[in-house]
Amino acid sequence: MKIDTDRHLGPECAIVRHAGETVGHVTTAEYGSQMLSVGGVVHLTGGTKSEGRVTCETLLELCNAQPVELTIDGGATVVVQAGQPPIVNGYREERMRVGCGSATIGMFARQWFGKVDDVVVVDDHITGVLSEHQAGKFLGVKDTGIKIKGRRSTPGRYFKVADPGTGWGGTNITDPLSILGPFDKSEAWPGLRLLMVSTTGEHYGYYELDEELKPVERDLPAALSESVERIKENCEPALASVLFMAGAGGSLRAGVTENPVRLTRSVKDALTCVTSGGAPVYVWPGGGITFMVDVTRMPDNAFGYVPTPALVAPIEFTLKLTDYAALGGHMSEVRPISSLAEDGRREVAPRPENPWPFIFPPWKKPPK
């Protein structure tokens, strides 16, 4: 799962739970997103009976695009629903960050030039400082004597200005001035104008230095208000993405052809198109047929389960009839698609964004 949020969900490798049972773990943090891994055979069949049952229930609800509450050891509580904004500690996310603090400086430096003397974009990953950043230097922004607490990376970029959290820019701070040291008296001046803003524009503050070169908060000028709104405008909507990853087992492949390895080879050779409920998939390289699919592109309630416990998902292999015969396919069982309606099967309309498998199969070129 990809959870779009600036807020810290939990440390990498932390346990992810549902209904108190271990169902997965936290993986890598990205700029504006946190990745979670839920499921897998270890949780389904390698633990207690309760763990397997709850894991299967969690997967079934997530893959059928139902909301699921997950708790992370040492971290947050998050409600995840595919295609919907995540809810972190009761807060419904609206947008993901426009970029790291350095990227934000690069994007908006020209819009700040002349309207403010310095800008600090607070970010858990890379906090940016306009006057030190190359974008500021290019415009001729002069040094302001500002001092940032944290580890300086390259000019205008700072790591670890605070601990991860649910405050400003995904940090644990509520007061942005806490990351500032005393201004250098040889460079700063009374009246210096300073904007501090987060990478989503959710948090911002405007300050001017007094006679003792200490920041005093003032109302945000209209000229800067526009730039804060521009940051918000450039943020993508925050969503929770759920990708289902699974493998086509040996018995499944034997149901397609008398010699299962030929099906695998035909997939690798692009003779056979793999889809899941009509949705396009990514087939992993390496052995077997392991694929990933976006559950929001599949039919509603496409997933089921068996008592193993295990999840059951649709999968289709589309190929030329002549290629199927060459694979050693079960030719005596071949029938036209139109005949399936005779069995009383429910027809599901294809999603218009999914070209496979019946609109433009791999051996036909779509019209220009």
Which features would summarize this protein structure in a list?
368 residues, alpha+beta, 3 domains, 9-stranded antiparallel beta sheet, 7-stranded mixed beta sheet
Protein model, in words:
This protein has helices at residues 41-45, 49-63, 101-112, 134-139, 222-233, 250-254, 260-268, 321-326; strands at 2-4, 15-18, 21-30, 33-38, 68-72, 77-80, 87-88, 91-92, 118-122, 127-129, 151-152, 157-159, 193-198, 204-209, 215-218, 240-241, 243-247, 273-276, 279-280, 282-283, 290-294, 304-306, 310-312, 316-318. By secondary structure, it is of the alpha+beta class. The protein has three domains: 2-96, no CATH class; 101-233, no CATH class; 242-340, no CATH class. A nine-stranded antiparallel beta sheet has the order 8-7-6-5-2-3-4-1-16. Strands 11-12-10-9-13-14-15 form a seven-stranded mixed beta sheet, with helices on one face. Strand 6 and strand 7 form a beta hairpin. The longest helix has 15 residues, at 49-63. The protein is elongated and about 90 Å long. The mean pLDDT is 92.
